[in-house]
């Protein structure tokens, strides 16, 4: 029986087949991130993007698996940012753990600020979808500027 076949009851005991492309980050996203780091006139070969796609996807699976094991042992169902930082450190990527922890702290701080800003805007001008979209766009722009500034000034 193939993985697409079902039994008489209409359900299958065979787990769905996981295709390789379903486990990889989208190649367009990988290419976009690579382009942000490289000089504007740099070109990236398709093979380079595909290799990076496989590497980062494997890295994410590796780290997530370790964090998930920790959560399972602690009888928790949700992996959070702290679990990811812990896993990165535990797996020997300690050069990344501290900067990631700082980023996570700043992100959480900005999220708190964002929620406060949203509440202020709702109180002053009232809630509607257009105001909400404009506010989120503005806040995302501010966070991007803060991130780029921090990235250029952090040791």
Automatic annotation (TrEMBL):
<feature type="domain" description="Transcription factor CBF/NF-Y/archaeal histone">
    <location>
        <begin position="25"/>
        <end position="88"/>
    </location>
</feature>
<dbReference type="InterPro" id="IPR009072">
    <property type="entry name" value="Histone-fold"/>
</dbReference>
<protein>
    <submittedName>
        <fullName>Nuclear transcription factor Y subunit B-5-like</fullName>
    </submittedName>
</protein>
<dbReference type="InterPro" id="IPR003956">
    <property type="entry name" value="Transcrpt_fac_NFYB/HAP3_CS"/>
</dbReference>
<dbReference type="InterPro" id="IPR003958">
    <property type="entry name" value="CBFA_NFYB_domain"/>
</dbReference>
<keyword id="KW-0010">Activator</keyword>
<keyword id="KW-0938">Abscisic acid signaling pathway</keyword>
<comment type="similarity">
    <text>Belongs to the NFYB/HAP3 subunit family.</text>
</comment>
<keyword id="KW-0805">Transcription regulation</keyword>
<keyword id="KW-0238">DNA-binding</keyword>
<dbReference type="GO" id="GO:0000978">
    <property type="term" value="F:RNA polymerase II cis-regulatory region sequence-specific DNA binding"/>
</dbReference>
<dbReference type="GO" id="GO:0016602">
    <property type="term" value="C:CCAAT-binding factor complex"/>
</dbReference>
<dbReference type="GO" id="GO:0009738">
    <property type="term" value="P:abscisic acid-activated signaling pathway"/>
</dbReference>
<dbReference type="GO" id="GO:0001228">
    <property type="term" value="F:DNA-binding transcription activator activity, RNA polymerase II-specific"/>
</dbReference>
<dbReference type="InterPro" id="IPR027113">
    <property type="entry name" value="Transc_fact_NFYB/HAP3"/>
</dbReference>
<keyword id="KW-0804">Transcription</keyword>
<dbReference type="Pfam" id="PF00808">
    <property type="entry name" value="CBFD_NFYB_HMF"/>
</dbReference>
<keyword id="KW-0539">Nucleus</keyword>
<dbReference type="GO" id="GO:0046982">
    <property type="term" value="F:protein heterodimerization activity"/>
</dbReference>
